[in-house]
Design goal:
Layout lengths: L2 E6 L2 E10 L15 E5 L10 H5 L7 E5 L8 E2 L7 H15 L4 E6 L1 H12 L4 E7 L5 E2 L2 E2 L1
Parallel strand pairs: 3-4, 3-6, 6-7
Antiparallel strand pairs: 1-2, 2-4, 2-5, 8-9
Helix pairs in contact: 2-3
Length: about 140
């Protein structure tokens, strides 16, 4: 199982990830001749939510990467009380540094959209485009999310 170890303000985090390329659903590295798309899952679901995209060779025309964020799937690491999409975006940026990824297209689903948008704000040099699927607002029913 591939993990990328990053350093955060609350200690080390081991981010579990999957890379798919046109040649294989489970690759060790990206095909550097193709664009890369990073998929960010919503809260309470891990990267398996994107399984269909990664398994279908017809859809797998680019490098596809999914990451389990902290407290999800096979990722390990601490989360502080004020953990937010800013922290998650920093995790993704550090992940990209560890894997030496070029700027990527970012796809966020639900709360993953908040992270995708924050990536564009905080780490614009790492983002080619942002695609937000069913984004939720920063506040919901008068309470911060």
């Amino acid at each position: 199982m591939p993990h990328a170890r990053i350093k955060t303000s609350v200690g080390p985090v081991n981010l579990y990830y999957t890379i798919s390329t046109p040649a294989t659903a489970s690759a060790k590295s990206i095909d550097t001749s193709l664009p890369t798309v990073i998929f960010l899952h919503p809260a309470f679901l891990a990267q398996e939510v994107f399984h269909c995209q990664f398994a279908d060779p017809q859809l797998r025309r680019f490098n596809l990467i999914a990451i389990d964020s902290r407290c999800h799937g096979a990722t390990t690491g601490r989360v502080n009380d004020d953990y937010s999409c800013i922290d998650t975006a920093d995790d993704v940026a550090k992940f990209m540094d560890v894997l030496r990824l070029p700027p990527c297209h970012i796809v966020g689903l639900s709360s993953g959209s908040c992270t995708a948008l924050q990536m564009a704000i905080s780490h614009s040099n790492k983002v080619l485009s942002v695609f937000m699927v069913s984004p939720h607002p920063e506040t919901e029913v008068g309470r911060p999310v």
